[in-house]
Amino acid sequence: MPLKTPEQYVDSLRALKIRAYVGGERVEEPIDHPLVAPHVNNAAQTYTLAHRPEHEDVMTAVSHLTGERVHRFTHVFQSSDDLVKKIQMLRLLGQRTGTCFQRCVGLDGLNAVYAISYEVDQGEGTDYHARFRRYLERVQAEDLMLAGAMTDPKGHRAKRPSEQDDPDQFVRVVKRLPDGVVIRGAKLHNTGGINAHEVLVMPGTALRPEEKDYAIACAVPADAEGVIFIFGRQTNDRRKLEGGCDIGNPRFGAVGGESMVVFDDVFVPNDRIFMNGETDYCGTLVTYFATWHRSNYGGCKGGNADVLIGATAKMTRMLGTERNAIVRDKLIEMIHLTETTYASAIGASAMGYALPGGSYMVEPMMANTVKQNITRNIYQIARLSHDLAGGFVATMPEETAFENPEIGEYLRKYHTANPEFDVMERVRFGRYIENMTSVTTMVEAMHGAGSPQAQRIVMLGQAGIDKKIELAEQVIHGTDDVAGLPLPGRSERES
Ligand code: SF4
């Protein structure tokens, strides 16, 4: 079965000689750097759980290309059931890591390129889809981690790609050769890029016919010449250099270990190019990717919220407040917010429909609603966690202070609440809450898979306001049934 073990995953990363900068400095072996290693652990969990027999059904799938059982993170969605299992997989992994485990961007990217390459071929007579299928067979056989790269720097936001003073603000083809192309530009917020095998480059916006050079989708090995990863920093990241419980999430990083990836005139051979100049299809490609990715958040953030709810509930026990009715009601509210979002993601998946190329898309209205809710619910869940855990989370001193013989005794004495619990356990859980509800985590929930307004635009477009007016008229005027109205949540494409 083509499933890497976590050890094989780490070894295979070591075999890549990538150009990476961490903490502003060039590092030879980034995956061993203390700022990066926790993020490698996040992704490694996806490999670990795929080998557990009890998780085989959600962590793996049968490839429609080869009939082999492959990692679900390399699988093309073949049914609504596949989409549902993906959300279940994300919740499972979110529970095990308490954070982002990175591989979904590549998964949604490969599904988007799979679907669009078929449609481009149908419309333009190209042969991208067969190329991509061959590439995907290798990805599945080697259980590769792809970093999906879509977000361009975008430069002046009021200008289109072709209008920028600096044309490199969107990744573009700068040279066309008989055997491939040369690309230049950068992609931002690249989740897991520094610990992925390959970067899957996709256009980040709809394009006009005169913007052909920006319509490029291709796969680039992480260690290809000219590829540079610049690792971003996160809230409290330097605590990882100190070690100890102040890190918060001691084994795993906060969110996805994002990088800027620079393409400094990178050559891409023809067999790795899956779109090259077909501007008409870029908007659809971006929509496909974003719709799948928006539904994910009900899974992964649901799993993360499970851990946060658990940490918060334990804090209430350590404080002795757990029987208070108001405290219990606030925990119920955290549960309600979590399950509401998860239910929407499951609904979007259950209502999935087939795309022209045969793969399955989630129901767009529900998928966008999931992500819109996440931009609020995660903040509200964090707020309730802060409310219940208390100001201690923000004011406790560092772990070393508790070990200082001059003051440690005072800290232990005056931070002891319910004496059944060791004070350092309270510190540990407080630090987890502090770090997993801090700025980086919140901003990721806000902007990952698109900023809130992007979802609202789709929601309005999907809502069918004119049809809702017809419904109102039918009810108010007592006329006969209005024909052809879709059921809520059911795609019109199949109704
Ligand atoms: Fe996956 Fe969630 Fe991380 Fe996005 S934020 S890559 S959906 S775990």
Characterise this structure.
With 495 residues, the protein is of the alpha+beta class. It is built from 17 helices and 14 strands. It has helices at residues 6-15, 37-50, 56-59, 80-97, 104-124, 128-142, 239-242, 282-319, 325-350, 364-389, 392-395, 399-403, 408-415, 423-436, 439-447, 452-463, 465-477; strands at 19-22, 25-27, 60-62, 69-71, 146-149, 172-177, 180-190, 198-201, 216-221, 227-231, 259-269, 273-276, 353-354, 360-361. The strands form 4 sheets. A 6-stranded mixed sheet has the order 2-1-10-11-7-6, with no helix packed on it. β13 and β14 (360-361) form a beta hairpin. It is globular and about 75 Å long. The mean pLDDT is 94. The chain binds iron/sulfur cluster. Residues 100-102, 104-105, 191, 256, 296-297, 300, 448 line the site of iron/sulfur cluster (SF4). Iron/sulfur cluster is lined by residues 100-102, 104-105, 191, 256, 296-297, 300, 448.
- Rg, alpha carbons: 24 Å
Largest sheet: 6 strands, mixed
Query: Helical percent range?
Result: 40-55%
Q: Give the cofactors and ligands.
A: iron/sulfur cluster
Strand content: 5-15%
Characterize the overall form.
Answer: globular
Number of helices: 17
